[in-house]
Design goal:
The complex is a heterodimer of chains A (about 850) and B (about 210). Helices cover about 45% and strands about 15% of the residues of chain A. Chain A is α/β, with parallel strands linked by helices and about 850 residues long. Chain B has one domain: Serine Threonine Protein Phosphatase 5, Tetratricopeptide repeat (Alpha Horseshoe), CATH 1.25.40.340. The chains are: A alpha/beta (about 850), B mainly alpha (about 210). Chains A and B meet through helix 2 and helix 3 of A and helix 3 and helix 4 of B.
């Protein structure tokens, strides 16, 4: 642990400061030495006494270093002189702090006790007065900070290594330069400071103040500082949601650049929507569900064809160097060409897919402009490498650093680095965009976004990847374009070129060199899906009637306004479930009543004349909302979720209910309470609704507003006759119901044998609900099974009279409904209820058992894409 | 030629004159500082004057180093490290010489004044002791270049220092405690420049 020396004119002052720090920390604090006053009474400082104190403190710190905190005037001169009096080796381990004495000693002691190193303690001391400055609301000018590097007479500084953005490298601000300004940048967005927000930070810093030095470190993780103009540096700060970054700027536009960064941070570095609703569509993860996207692929999630591959790059290390100057020019030219191409791709992606995807390319272009990468590559060229060899080495190193990061989402950004790396290499080697040799199923290591956008969908029938997660931008882009993708197959993807493969993205099935009859089967599957899809889309807007003319409404699950539009386009008979927590997931502050009124009314307009089901905030420790923090209990799924979360403080729920009441006055709305288990819960929900209605100035809830509860807790299902007595409808949340009935987490592949939603126990509860609701109470079902056309008949046969599905699944579910009569469906369901287990139910339905792994992965991916944050 | 005894006499003279002027120095300091300059200086130089009686010194430089360290440890205010540095640096060019003439003394004076600048980071016009030391050094070196002896050089230096001191009166302080006063520091002679003049005048009386 470091030691502290308190230098003051007054011995009693110094002792009092030490007592204050010790009082705060008890025995855990650092070793504190006092060098103050000439004697007990005489004010003054004595350099020799300071020197002696420093030597004692240094011995106590065992080499960890000494931080000297000073009061004023001669204390500074004496301390400086003291460092000349002690052994230079000791002096090298000492930092003199310009922090205010009291704050500095307390803050540095606390940091030291927490195990911080000398530089960190020095930094903490420097910023210790900020709390006071902020509290008193003094302007930014009062926050003028001198950086620790600037006050350190003998700062311990490692030599700046040539590697890119290595955590711990410390590019120094100029101690003799203009004042250094400091701000904190909270990381608000869900995925932290991943590549795109990092690129925005770098771009903003470069745009506002290219002539100003800006350093950023991650105060939470201790990573950095890094140069804010270095994307590879900033991205390796490993800044996740909730972390706090500290930016320091020194130069002519220090204040402007920090103000710009603060503004950017408030927007989650571009990942959070502006605070006004509907100014722009809420972010949609389901690009595929967006209307108006040219779908150039088959969209059938299945493909058959010979394996094709991309041309292979020659080994860049074998490229001979032709003189440093020539190679430098080449490198510069190649990088410029690649940047130009990426900017073009960004425009294309904006037109073809969406803003989120366009920014992937903008971020990649920014990555290429990274001065540190360029400097590292140039250094290697100067050392005799060819541009191609130098570039490929630097890129490999940068990618490796991303792969070391803890956050899986950020780890995937290594792909971005490799992707831009290859783009420049191709330029250097004089090769064009990757060529796909022939028509068929493309096998790649990972699917990079540029490739996914550039693929000729007429020739590439599908893509198989060896590596790469399902959240890769490339996979999302390909899916949006309707190109079937099967990801993460590992060695199973090592198939010789030209071998015929067939795969079904829905089941995860992959057949290599299938027998002629299997191949024919696949081709038939593709043809059938195409025909079905075309028919389904044609009839999507026609109400779905069973053969005996019973209407079953098929509604859409909605997580954003854009998804709502997609649902309406696909013929949904309204919204069966608006996940309000998903609609507002990226809001940092709770939306006001007015903002909610605007959003719910807009959703209702999209589905007009059909109704829209607003589910109240369904948050909990398993899916927390920024504006509704949940206490982490021992078992969040069995904790204060949904309605229960408002038992102590219903304020946010009342706001929401008031908005619903107001919108329901002139729109067809339904209201759905989640996580209801007892009759008392229903009573509480009802009373809150009455209160909210009165707040809206109404005598009671609007007459047109129909009220229901989610049936996801087995207790509610079993007692539905009692619970639903005063309700208009109930909605079975089949995902959670299955999970609670089977006591198995459905996201855990190891529990797959126990978490099948087709387990007869689950089906029996659904039937029980349908049989026992009071007359006139509707039974809806929302959950993954509602989106599967293979299960539609079964669900209707159990007694469900309304389904709420993923928007894009609506046409197929409607089509499935039309195939049979309610009698046939009832009979099918009766047989399913008599089955021994889920497997027998599947056989009954003519379904193969789901293959573990890929199907779950692809199902999870579609669920995420469709529903944003919903689990 | 100036001997160890002369240097010891210098410090005795300094101590006497500063003791005598302590109240005046404190007065000056009270106007623009914290009002302890006279007391601090008197305490430090008294200890220095006593050194010769307590201890045998082998050389001039050893003696001056001890004076420097004594000032550092006893003056208390900013003058401690500043004058301490002055005497410590003064010792450097005089190492091990039994006696000195004007030339090494000029080198010593330059080293001492440079030490003050390095320690206090002051410039001419900041209203500090450097405003007395800077012209003093210049005058000493000019006199030396003109072929003057030690006594004449020191007299020139002391006179230049006094003019420098008087020149601090209209200045606005930019260093030290006086700088907190800003414009209000103008209209007063700087106490540091005043004590510097006392020290240089004592030198002219004893080292020449």
């Amino acid at each position: 642990m470091i030691s502290l020396v308190v230098v003051s004119h007054s011995r009693s002052l110094a002792r009092a400061v030490v007592a204050l720090a010790r009082g705060t920390l008890g025995a855990d604090g650092p070793h504190l030495e006092v060098a103050a006053g000439l004697d007990e009474e005489t004010l003054g400082t004595d350099a020799t006494a300071v020197a002696e104190a420093v030597v004692r403190a240094d011995a106590a710190s065992q080499g960890d270093g000494v931080l000297v905190l000073l009061d004023l005037g001669s204390a500074v001169l004496s301390a400086e002189m003291a460092l000349e009096l002690v052994d230079p080796q000791v002096a090298a381990r000492v930092v003199l702090s310009s922090a205010p004495l009291v704050e500095g000693v307390v803050a540095a002691s606390a940091s030291a006790a927490a195990g911080a190193d000398l530089q960190t303690c020095a930094r903490e001391a420097e910023v210790a007065q900020r709390a006071k400055v902020e509290h008193l609301g003094h302007p930014a000018g009062a926050d003028r900070q001198t950086p620790p590097a600037g006050v350190a007479v003998h700062p311990r500084q490692g030599p700046r290594s040539g590697t890119v953005g290595q955590p711990g490298t410390s590019p120094l601000l100029d101690p003799a330069g203009p004042p250094v300004r400091t701000v904190e940048l909270p990381v608000l967005a869900e995925h932290g400071l991943h590549a795109r927000p990092a690129a925005r930070l770098v771009a903003r810093a470069g745009e506002v103040a290219p002539d100003t030095t800006v350093l950023v470190h991650n105060r939470t993780s201790g990573r950095g500082p890094v140069d804010a103009l270095s994307l590879s540096g900033v991205a390796t700060l490993d800044a996740r949601q909730g972390h706090v970054l500290v930016a320091q700027a020194q130069g002519p536009r220090a204040e402007e650049v920090l103000a710009a960064l603060v503004e950017l941070a408030a927007e989650g570095f571009g990942d959070l929507p502006p605070a006004e609703p509907l100014a722009e569509d809420p972010p949609v993860l389901s690009v595929a569900a967006e209307p108006g996207i040219p779908v150039t692929g088959s969209g059938l999630e299945a493909a058959v064809g010979p394996v094709v591959r991309l041309d292979v790059l020659p080994d860049p290390r074998a490229v001979p160097a032709e003189g440093a100057e020539r190679e430098r020019d080449r490198l510069r030219g190649a990088v410029d060409a690649a940047v130009a191409r990426l900017e073009e791709l960004a425009h294309r992606a904006l037109d073809a897919v969406g803003r989120g995807e366009a920014e992937v390319f903008t971020a990649q272009a920014t990555l290429l402009r990274d001065p540190e990468i360029a400097a590292s590559a140039t250094a290697r060229v100067d050392a005799g490498s060819s541009a191609a060899a130098a570039w490929s080495e630097v890129v490999d190193e940068a990618a490796a650093r991303f792969e070391e990061l803890d956050d899986p989402y950020q780890r995937e950004r290594a792909l971005d680095v490799r992707s831009v790396g290859e783009r420049v290499l191709r330029e250097l080697l004089g090769l064009a965009e990757p060529e796909v040799a022939g028509e068929g199923v493309l096998v790649v290591d990972e699917l990079d976004p540029g490739l996914a956008l550039a693929l000729d969908a007429a020739r590439v029938r599908g893509v198989i990847t060896r590596r790469g997660g399902s959240t890769g931008h490339g996979v999302l882009i390909a899916s949006a374009r309707g190109i079937p993708v099967l990801t993460g197959l590992g060695e199973r993807a090592d198939v010789a070129d030209g071998t015929v493969v067939a795969f079904d993205q829905r089941t995860g099935r992959l057949d290599v060199d299938p027998a002629p009859e299997v191949r024919a089967e696949f081709e038939e599957l593709v043809a059938r899906r195409r025909a079905e899809r075309e028919r389904a889309l044609r009839d999507a807007h026609v109400p779905a009637l069973t053969r005996d003319h019973v209407r079953v409404r098929v509604k859409a699950n909605v997580a954003s306004l854009a998804v709502a539009r997609a649902g309406a386009c696909h013929g949904a008979d309204g919204a069966g479930l608006v996940r309000t927590e998903a609609v507002f997931a990226r809001w940092r502050q709770a939306p006001t009543v007015e903002q909610q009124v605007e959003v719910y009314a807009a959703l209702a307009d999209v589905f007009d004349p059909h109704d829209v089901t607003i589910r109240t905030w369904d948050a909990g420790a398993d899916k927390p909302l920024a504006f509704l923090p949940a206490e982490e209990g021992p078992n969040p799924f069995l904790g204060a979720r949904g309605l229960r979360a408002f038992a102590a403080d219903p304020a946010l729920l009342l706001d929401q209910l008031e908005a619903v009441c107001r919108v329901a006055l002139d729109h067809p709305l339904r209201l759905l309470f989640p996580m209801v288990s007892t009759a008392d819960d229903v009573h509480v929900a009802r009373s809150l609704l009455d209160r909210a209605a009165r707040r809206a100035g109404l005598p009671g809830p609007p007459s047109g507003l129909r009220v229901g509860i989610m049936v996801e807790v087995p207790a509610a299902a079993l007692r539905i006759g009692t619970l639903a007595q005063e309700l208009d409808f109930v909605s079975v949340g089949s995902n959670d119901l299955a999970q609670y009935v089977l006591a198995a987490e459905r996201g855990n592949p190891a529990l797959a044998p126990w978490s099948d939603p087709l387990e007869p126990a689950v089906l029996q509860l659904v039937r029980h609900v349908a049989d026992h609701v009071p007359a006139g109470v509707g039974v809806s079902l929302c959950g993954a099974v509602a989106s599967d056309p293979d299960l539609t008949g079964l669900l209707v046969g159990l007694g469900v009279d309304e389904l709420s599905a993923t928007a894009s699944a609506v046409p197929m579910v409607k089509r499935a409904l039309r195939a049979g009569s309610t009698g046939q469906y009832r009979e099918l369901a009766d047989r399913a209820l008599a089955a021994r287990g889920a497997q027998e139910v599947r056989e009954l339905l003519g379904l193969a058992a789901p293959e573990d792994g890929p199907r779950r992965k692809s199902a999870a991916l579609s669920a995420r894409r469709a529903a944003g944050t919903a689990r | 030629m100036t001997t160890l005894t002369a240097f010891q006499a210098w410090l005795a003279d300094c101590s006497a004159v500063i003791e005598q002027q302590a109240e005046h120095l404190t007065e000056l300091d009270r106007a623009i500082g914290d009002g302890d300059h006279g007391t601090n200086m008197a305490r430090g130089f008294r200890r220095c004057a006593e050194l010769a009686e307590e201890e045998q010194f082998a050389s001039i430089d050893a003696y001056l180093k001890k004076v420097g360290m004594t000032l550092v440890g006893t003056v208390g205010g900013a003058s401690g490290p500043l004058y301490g540095t002055f005497f410590l640096r003064l010792a450097g060019p005089l190492s091990a010489a039994p006696d000195v003439d004007a030339r090494p003394l000029a080198q010593a004076l330059r080293a001492g004044v440079d030490g003050i600048v390095a320690r206090g980071r002051a410039e001419v016009g900041d209203k500090t002791m450097y405003d007395a030391f800077a012209p003093a050094l210049e005058a000493f070196e000019s006199a030396l270049a003109a072929g003057s002896g030690t006594a004449e050089c020191l007299r020139a230096a002391a006179e230049a220092a006094a003019r420098g001191r008087d020149g601090t009166e209209p200045l606005v302080a930019r260093k030290g405690r006086a700088s907190y006063l800003g414009e209000r520091s103008a209209g007063h002679v700087d106490p540091g420049a005043s004590s510097a003049v006392l020290i240089l005048e004592a030198a002219a009386r004893t080292l020449g």
